[in-house]
Structures are given as structure tokens and as C-alpha cells.
Amino acid sequence: MTITTDNAIAREGFSANYTIRERILPPGHEDEDFACMEPLGMESGEITSEQISASSQYNSNWSPERSRLNYEENGWTPSDDTVREWVQEELSFVHLENTFWASYDRGLLTQPEKGEGGGGGGDTERQKILQRALKGLPSKTDLWRNASVDLGFLRFVTAIGTQGAISKETKKHYYVRSYKVDLSSNGEDWVTVKEGSKQKIFEGNHNPTDEARSFLPKQTLARYIRVRPMSWEQGICMRFEIYGCRTSDYPCSGMLGMVSGQISDAQISASSYADRGWVAENARLLTGRSGWTGQQTKQPFRNEWLQVGLETELLVLNNGE
């Protein structure tokens, strides 16, 4: 695995884009069993209109929420046909697998609903851990209102399918012939998809109605996706879908409990810690602005360790940092 930062300051933990160059499959799993090509929610509406934004819009008949694949009336069109325009979506829906659903409303964790594998005496501690983790998420009130929040919010992105549109008013045909794609893990620091050392130009449409699907050079983790038209016919107009999968959809890649709270604080230990703000249990992904660090007086840090007791024998392929 190669870790490459996306230039973000690690305010809420380690912020990075990473791709799997080689993965080891458990016995009985073959590559053809896994395609990572599920639509991620533009056409279905699982991605809400509040999660879609754009640099501008021509008018309300050509707004960003009309950029969904197969939307029946027009599509997204900016105020000006220039390469400075863009449309963006956030992949922020998340499901806590094998624990329970939770809602994040106005910065607060609401009462969770028990799901498959949920319930039991450990739920109270899990709620406390989840509430602590959610303090590290951005408090975008309008964006998150009544939304279900997935604490594993990154998605593998494999491909983008685009359409143009035929104007309901003028019957003119509009579509984008080529575009670039920017990805981000935090919505502030962006990386343009490259092929080799050059920014990739994705092939778009040749007519306004058929879907044109273009693949990323390699599956890439992202939370935010921005499409930037480069060339077009008559004017910029886009409808699109993002294809990929959840990180947990990869064989043997489900989270084992550091985020969800299935691994309790008592199961996490360390050789030392700097102070109460940097204890071992703060090593959970998305805990907030702190984490775990050893005693500062012991620099350079040698023979320091962090330990997690899984309480049962499990196959571990990698860790998220």
C-alpha cells in the first residue's frame, strides 16, 4: 500500500488519498467476484441534493441538483461556458456495518437504532465512543440535517458516467466532450486525477442522451468528487453518476471496531502517553483533533507501541491511518 498525502493539514486526523496496488484475497475469493462498480447514489437519490454543489448555475431550470444521471428535465449548466466551472458531489452517506445505524443532526449523535449485530450491553459504551468520534466531523448544519452519517465515509471511485441534455425550452442539444476530475478527502484540499505524470482528460459524450462511461486509471478513495468540463458542444451541460464501492465491500476489509466502539477502550493500551488528551483510546480513527502520542520526554521515540486486543483470532490485511 502506498500512502500519499493530499496536502491537507491533519486537523481531524490523518488526511490522505491512497490506492491499493496489490491486495491479498482470502481463500475462496477470486478477483472476478468483486467489480467495485456500484452506482453511488446520484441517479437513485441516495446522494441528496444538499450534497451536490457547483461553481454556478444558468438559472433554476439548470441547477446542480439536475446533474443526476437520467434526470428528466434539463441538467446542470453554469452561468458561463468556461473551463473554470465545475460541479461537485459529496459521498457522505455511511452505514455502520454489524453495529447499528446512527443519525448526525446539527452536530449531535441521535439515539441509534439497533441493526443486524447491534444491541446488547455494549451499546452504551459504543454510543459514547461514536459521540466522541463525531466531534471530529465538520458541523455543517444544513449539509447534515436529517442525514445518516457513515463513519467510513470514504468510497472507492472506479468510473464516472456522463450525459448531456436536450433543452426543454429550446430543444437544443448540449453535452460535454471532455472533462477533468478532482478528488478530495476533506472538501478543501483537492487532487486532480492523473494518468502517469499528466492530468487525465476524461472522454465525455458524443450526443446529449447516451451515457458515456470513463474509468479512473486506478480505483481511488475519495469523499468529494468534482467534475470540471474542458470542452463541450453548444454549451456546458452535464448529468452524471459515480461508480465504485464502499471500502468494506472489498473482501476481508470490514472495520473491526475501532470506529464503531466494538473494540472497547479497555482493549486499547500503549507503552506511554503524553497527557490525558493523548491517551491510547484516542487512537481511534476520527476521534477528533487529538490522537495517541507517547511521552514527549522520551524523544526520540523508540520502543513505543500501541496495542489493540481483538479478543478472537482474525485475519488482518491492513490498517487505516
Automatic annotation (TrEMBL):
InterPro entries for the chain: FA58C, Galactose-bd-like_sf, Neuropilin_MCO_CoagFactor
Gene Ontology biological process terms, A to Z: axon guidance; neural crest cell migration; positive regulation of endothelial cell migration; positive regulation of filopodium assembly; regulation of vascular endothelial growth factor receptor signaling pathway; response to wounding; sprouting angiogenesis; vascular endothelial growth factor receptor signaling pathway
PROSITE patterns hit by this protein: FA58C_2, FA58C_3
TM helices/strands, residue ranges: none
One annotated Gene Ontology cellular component of this protein: axon
Alphabetized UniProt keyword annotations: Disulfide bond
Domain F5/8 type C, chain residue ranges per copy: 36-245, 252-321
SUPFAM superfamilies: Galactose-binding domain-like
Annotated protein name in UniProt: Neuropilin-1
Organism, as annotated: Dissostichus eleginoides
